[in-house]
Amino acid sequence: MKRPRFLPDNFTLILIGLVVLATVLPVEGDAARAADLLTNLAIGLLFFLHGAKLPTQAVVAGLAHWRLHGLVFACTFLLFPALGLALRPVIEPAIGPDLYKGMLFLCALPATVQSAIAFTSMARGNVAAAICSAATSSLIGIFITPVLVLMMLGAAVQSMPLGEAIGNITLQLLVPFVAGQIARRWIGGWVDKNKAWLKYVDQTSIYLVIYTAFSRAVVEGIWNTLPVWQLVSLTVVCCLFLALILFIVNVLARLLNFSIEDRITILFAGSKKSLAAGVPMAQVLFAGASMGTLLLPLMLFHQIQLMVCAVLAKRYARRPEIEAPAVAEPA
């Protein structure tokens, strides 16, 4: 039976299901503490496998395209936060202060890896540059994201000192990643052959964080304080915010005279935010705090960006092959 077009992908359906499950059956007490420990272990394994999957030579080779990477990083770590702060008079009244903090957290995150590369490939863009840009964005984000979060949210991160925040991120995310890079020498072949099912490790860690985060939020009464109109407003804000980002990124890439292939890479790498990196980072930076409202904007934005970028990638893919020589039709 063919899957209905209006039906979201399985990953999104499971996320929705976990939010519903946390609403009716939240994990509490000792079970919540055990779930947090399991989640931290899953996140460590996630970043270890990220390190084992990423070919070091691909990053080194791609770094030569510094103009493209510079623009992608500027869009990811400067444009997003600048717009998030500049549009506060419009966004905060529309969605409320708690969800606005979630929007700022979203703005501080690195770009996606898998989907940015997949969409670039689908659109016939510069895939090698996309691999390098997305991968290095995730690595740089380990250090830049805590700084941006502390600058923009301050006390919302429990007044955590900058050194402690970066230290926590380094210990829980970077150390496993580096260990994975080192272990790639021995397990890289096995990891490459088993990527199809290893992706479920990524998803499982996200599922655990979402369930535990929303369980905590439900126990604290999130659905009693978050009316439906705020969720609708948040959806509209995420759509408009993404549209604005896509427009600005595309204009900048054109003004700087990048080729069409590079513009595609910049568009998909510079306009996306990573749920896979954002959820573990929230677990570290906001430990002990309610993450339900902080993660809602990221979850919505993630799904919207996937749907919009899929449409854009298909449109780019239909462009004619200019390089191909014309073939005369038989008389």
Describe this structure in words.
- This protein is mainly α and about 325 residues long.
- The protein has one domain (about 25-315): Na+/H+ antiporter like fold (Up-down Bundle).
- The chain contains 15 helices and no strands.
- Helix 10 packs across helix 14.
- The termini are far apart.
- The model is unreliable at about 325-330 (pLDDT under 50).
Set out the fold topology.
Blueprint: H1 10-24, H2 29-53, H3 56-62, H4 66-86, H5 88-95, H6 97-107, H7 114-122, H8 127-153, H9 162-193, H10 195-219, H11 222-225, H12 228-255, H13 260-270, H14 275-285, H15 292-317
Helix pairs in contact: 1-10, 2-9, 2-10, 3-8, 4-8, 4-12, 4-13, 5-6, 6-15, 7-8, 7-13, 7-15, 8-9, 8-13, 9-14, 10-14, 12-13, 12-15, 14-15
Relevant terms:
mainly alpha, Na+/H+ antiporter like fold, 15 helices, globular, 331 residues
